[in-house]
């Protein structure tokens, strides 16, 4: 597997599913009141995920073995989530499970295309996968962030209008379909229009929740900032794909990294910090280095997103390496504060 495809595979189908699983298992337990996975079951999921990462390095059969283990991981996670939904009989919570199943399908399609040397089609499945992740981010903006803001500042929780909820869920699914069927002439222009509508809808949701107090609380502004990056990155991604062969640089690559670094990575860092503090009985105050970690991951996103604009080889790679350094430092700050916390009893 070429470096580019390995990088996309491990970040989108290794890192992101692990984060999505952690979020969904925790959220589904809270939403339904039933435990999804803990102790042995949780350890089993971790081991299957880890084996899928290691299997990739098996000579010749690595990609197939990794795919098989990854699909097993997806199935096990879905069963854990379904167990909680069936016991609670709250069928509305099936939607995140459907999105997760679609994510598994896009993983299979991506690897299938690579195995059959259809790299351009694999790229479209990769972009479709990103649209599904944007859908998960959109759900967080509508369900989780209003609760966090209201709880932190003792405000009444903002109610997101029903139409915005529907658009926030349905549009990313349509964008993903648009990426998959992008070879048809009418599809990409229509998808570009939908991406702009999605961006306006997300900006409206953020506007509804806005209070200037957000910027005084790192645990909130990191999530708010991540949603802004996703809001900007989505139309950049789709428009970049539409004009892929008409511009001297890869605009869609800018969108990819605005979403992945500025959206997914920042959201991940913020939610992991909040979850680690909350689930160990600690105060939800960001430790001293974490605000800097949040800033670093946003800086990493900006540097990497601007990389395609630098036509000079030296400066382009300088930005690239600076972005990677900022990203690594951000997660090192997280480990500095929390690595030992995972091995201690909750307060």
Topology diagram in text:
Layout (H helix, E strand, L loop, with lengths): L2 H30 L7 H16 L6 H27 L5 H22 L3 H25 L1 H9 L8 H19 L6 H23 L8 H25 L8 H29 L10 H17 L6 H26 L9
Shape verdict = globular
Q: Ends: how far apart?
A: 46 Å
In CATH terms, what is the fold-level topology of the largest domain? Answer: Cytochrome C Oxidase, Chain A
Note the main sheet. none
Helix content: over 70%
CATH class of the largest domain equals: Mainly Alpha
Q: Output mean pLDDT.
A: 90
CATH superfamily of the largest domain: Cytochrome c oxidase-like, subunit I domain
Poorly predicted spans: none
Number of helices: 12
Rg calculated over all Cα atoms = 20 Å
Number of strands: 0
* Class inferred from helices and paired strands: mainly alpha
Strand content: under 5%
CATH architecture annotation name of the largest domain: Up-down Bundle
Number of domains: 2
Q: Give the H and E element order.
A: HHHHHHHHHHHH
Transmembrane segments: 12-30, 42-61, 67-86, 93-113, 125-150, 162-181, 187-207, 219-243, 255-277, 289-307, 319-343
Protein name: NnrS family protein
Keywords: Membrane, Transmembrane, Transmembrane helix
Characterization of the model:
By secondary structure, the chain is mostly helical. The protein folds into 2 domains: 1-112, no CATH class; 118-347, Cytochrome c oxidase-like, subunit I domain (Cytochrome C Oxidase, Chain A), CATH 1.20.210.10. The chain is built from 12 helices and no strands. It has helices at 3-32, 40-55, 62-88, 94-115, 119-143, 145-153, 162-180, 187-209, 218-242, 251-279, 290-306, 313-338. Helix 1 packs antiparallel against helix 4 (94-115), helix 2 runs antiparallel to helix 3 and helix 5 packs antiparallel against helix 9. It is globular, with a radius of gyration of 20 Å.
């Amino acid at each position: 597997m070429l470096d580019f495809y390995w990088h996309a595979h491990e970040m989108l189908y290794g890192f992101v599913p692990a984060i999505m699983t952690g979020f969904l298992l925790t959220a589904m337990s809270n939403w339904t009141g039933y435990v999804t996975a803990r102790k042995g079951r949780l350890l089993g999921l971790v081991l299957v995920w880890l084996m899928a990462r290691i299997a990739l390095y098996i000579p010749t059969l690595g990609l197939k073995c990794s795919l098989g283990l990854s699909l097993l991981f997806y199935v096990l996670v879905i069963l854990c989530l379904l167990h909680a939904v069936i016991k609670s009989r709250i069928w509305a919570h099936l939607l995140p499970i459907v999105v997760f199943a679609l994510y598994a399908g896009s993983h299979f399609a991506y690897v299938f295309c690579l195995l059959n040397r259809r790299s351009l089609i694999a790229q479209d499945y990769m972009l479709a996968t990103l649209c599904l992740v944007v859908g998960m981010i959109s759900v967080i903006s509508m369900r989780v962030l209003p609760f966090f803001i209201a709880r932190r500042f003792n405000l009444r929780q903002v109610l997101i209008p029903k139409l915005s909820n529907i658009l926030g869920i349905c549009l990313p699914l349509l964008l993903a379909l648009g990426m998959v069927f992008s070879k048809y002439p009418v599809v990409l222009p229509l998808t570009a229009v939908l991406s702009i509508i999605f961006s306006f809808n997300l900006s409206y949701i953020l506007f509804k929740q806005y209070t200037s107090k957000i910027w005084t609380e790192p645990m909130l502004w990191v999530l708010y900032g991540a949603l802004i990056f996703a809001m900007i990155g989505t139309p950049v991604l789709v428009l970049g794909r539409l004009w892929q062969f008409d511009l001297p640089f890869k605009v869609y690559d800018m969108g990819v990294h605005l979403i992945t670094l500025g959206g997914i990575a920042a959201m991940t860092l913020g939610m992991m910090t909040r979850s680690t503090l909350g689930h160990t009985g600690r105060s939800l105050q960001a430790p001293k280095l974490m605000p800097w970690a949040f800033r670093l991951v946003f800086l990493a996103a900006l540097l990497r997103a601007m990389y395609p604009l630098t036509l000079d080889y030296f400066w382009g790679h300088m930005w690239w390496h600076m972005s990677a350094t900022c990203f690594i430092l951000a997660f090192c700050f997280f480990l500095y504060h929390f690595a030992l916390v995972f091995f201690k009893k909750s307060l």
